[in-house]
């Protein structure tokens, strides 16, 4: 569970369609409740009081007051603070959980066809990282014909980006049985590259435009996190599903 302090609790504004701190809410703004919504009619400061924070495993949303206002313990705030303490810069790239990036790059139409979607949308998980798992490339297993996701554990991100790419390519070639695989590369007009996952050891083969460049889903790179000794604390792709409550 996220141990969010009351300062970090956010209210869901149905007006702004986003989570907001209490101080960010405006008079007249609508906030989500368990029965619908309520209107903020006034604001006034109150003296500080000792409070006790309720923590429930993998549950981050709570109902407060008799009205039942929906409040969220913001894990991404704690992730930012943790990474700052580790000396990581650009922690603003840890996004609001549940926020979505719409990809409109040059190959967006090709991706829509490939994934049978009306839009290419990347959701940020409960910890503020982009979930690229729906767009991981797959290859056919030469033995049983099953699809293999190009998600590989290289042990640890070491050296340069290229050395990590080489390690990932070596593993991918061995499990797919194709010695010609070497990424970054293009498949059917779509460029693919390896994404460094925030767990500090997993590489995911995804469309390049989603991962970096002008149209990408901006994020704090897994290699940057690993280089500061913080990667091992974050869940690996197989476990990220438990942190997608805000993307459902």
From TrEMBL:
UniProt cross-references to Pfam families, sorted A to Z: WHH
InterPro entries for this protein: Hint_dom_sf (IPR036844), Intein_C (IPR030934), WHH_dom_containing (IPR032869)
Protein name in the entry: Uncharacterized protein
Upper taxonomic lineage: Bacteria, Pseudomonadati, Bacteroidota, Saprospiria, Saprospirales
Highest taxon listed in the record's lineage: Bacteria
